[in-house]
Every structure is written in structure tokens, then in C-alpha cells.
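In practice, a research group might receive sequence data for several interacting partners and want a quick structural hypothesis before committing to experiments. The following worked case mirrors that situation: the sequences arrive first, and a predicted assembly follows.
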Amino acid sequence: MPVSATNSKLIYEALKACDVKIMSALPETWLVHLIRMADEDPDVTLVRLAKEEEGIGISAGAHLAGVNSALLMQNHGFLAAINPIVSLALLYKIPLLMLISYRGYMGEKDPWQTQGGLATEPILRALNIPTWQLTSANDIFHRLKDAQTLAHASLQPVAVLLTRELMWEE
Amino acid sequence: MLRLDALQAIYPELEDRIVVTIMGAVAAELYSLGHRPNFFYLEHAMGLASSMGLGIALSMPEHRVIVIDGDGSLLMNLGTLSTMARYKPGNLLHIVFDNESLLSVGGFPTATTSGTNLAGIARFSGVPCVKEADTIQSLQESVSEALKTNTLTTIVSKVEAISPNSFHIDLTLLENRFQFWRSLQVMHNQSKT
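A structural hypothesis for the assembly, expressed as C-alpha cells:
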């Protein structure tokens, strides 16, 4: 599978360095290695969701209970979770660390991903959610740490977009 | 059964535990019985009270978490039953008051009036213990039994669709959020010592 195992591992290690203990996820091709690593890690609880909305509630609960969490989601999953992002995370000032695979953008061959790709950044901007793009392996560690730091300081969601350049090897 | 009477009957079990409720009548009535810093009223994000409860239960396995849900909310997030059942946190108790109505937004009937059975859905989602408790006594018994065992339990209780006198809660959303967070921190630290 041309999903980058090396960069997935770097992302996973960066999440561990952020002391993330709960990861919620819905399977998505670009996230397979991350989900597998979370599943095999005895120190991390992987919560496999039925729908991404639930992940916002789970992360909110974890935060209020003092535990760091991260959400692994496709951008279409992010789109599916807009209401709880607004009416739970933003309304109640809950920090979220959302790792979003950026499907449907430059280089995308699957036509069905393209509308979501076009909508992702405008919607993040409309919600005023600070967003990093991860395009290079060198940025992974500090950008994930910085994203979490801002989320906790501002008590609001942040997004890290996992781009094709980083996740796909072809 | 009136929801207020049901809440009053189980209040002693709720008092010192982590409680997450849905919005509307449940929140207003629990608040009217006596607010506690360990009570969180999710005033929006319909359907996610149980997901929040799951997040707390997984994060604080040494504490009991009680979610008070409703038929309208649960129907908006049925996937939560399969997710809870998948991880089966034994410290999570999920109570669903089914008044067969979207009471706080005009009283329109929910699908539980036309045959949808929430206890049945919970059971077949894999929730290990599911009870139907439609009287005060059976609810009290089911709650205290669930709190004694270490088994994820969903209790579905039919209640009348009667609104509280007021939906007002004299607590801002953020006040409730930070108070609850502090209170969980204290519980967490106490259990460490």
C-alpha cells in the first residue's frame, strides 16, 4: 500500500510525545498505519467510531477528565462532525487535536473525494479553527506539539491537515 | 412515571457521582433537585451526552459515570450504543428516559411511538446489560444493581411527556463546564492519594 509507513510512524511518535492517551478513529486508507499502531499500543485506547460526531463527544469527555486525546479522521469525517465541533467544542471551549487526512486536493485521482477537498479549508476558516498543513516529515514533530499547545492554551479545536505529499508514496 | 419523580428517587445515587445529562427537561429537572459541581448538562450537541460519558468513563476507570439520555437524543446518535458496547466500560451507566416525544421543541412524537424499541436496539448492539424499568421501584432497583456490578448497563424508562415549569438553569454553560472539569480533577487527585 503506498501510504507512507515511515511518515505515519513519525506522526504516531509525535502524538505519543504529546502524551495522547485516547485516539478515536474511523478507518480511512491514509490512516491505516496510524490506526494499526494505536490498536497495538497498550498505552493508548483506540476508540473505533460508528461516526466521527461521536469522537467530538469522546474527546470532550476525555478533556474534562484530564486526559489528552486526538481524533484521526478523513476530511469527510470532519465535515460529518461540524455540528458537534460548533455546538460542543466551540460552545464549551473544548480543545480538540484533529488530524484530518486531506483527501480530494491537489493530485487526487478519485472524483468522489474532490468536493470534500475543495470544502475543507474554507470551512475550517469559517469556523476560525487554526490549521497546520503537514507536507514535510521535518515538520511533523514540532507542528503536532505546537498544535496541541495552542489547543490547550486557547481551549479550542485545532486542525492538522495530513497532505498527499506526506501520506502517499507513489 | 414522571421524570421528576424518577430523578428524585435516584438522586441519592447521582449526588456524588459523575453525571452527564442531555439538554432540556432532564437538565432543568435535575438542576431543580439540587445542582452539584459533578453534574454536567450538555445544553446542545444533541445525542452526544453518551459519547461524552464514554470519553469520561474510559479516562477515569476508577470512577462511576452516569449518563442521563433521552429518546430524541439517543435516536440522533444510535451508533453510540454500538461504540459503547464495543468497549463495555463497566463504570458507565446509561439511563434513557423515553417520553416518546421531542418535548422541549414542541412535543412532536419520536419514532418510539411507532414501534422503535430502544432497549431492543441497545441489546442487539451488544450492551451487556439492558433493563426496562417503567416504575420508580424498578428504576431504583436497576440503578443500584448496575452500580454494584461492573457491567456496562443501559436502562430504558418510559416517562410521561410533561414539561417542567421552567427550562431555566441559573448557571452559564461555561460556568458549568469549568466547575465540572475542576470537580473531576479533584476526584481524580483524590483517587490517586
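Before designing any experiment, note the following. Helices of chain B lie at 3-14, 25-33, 49-59, 71-76, 79-87, 118-125, 136-148, 173-192. The interface with chain A takes residues 20, 40, 42, 44-45, 47-60, 77, 79-80, 82-83, 86-87, 173-174, 177, 180-181, 184-185, 188 of chain B (CB under 8 Å).
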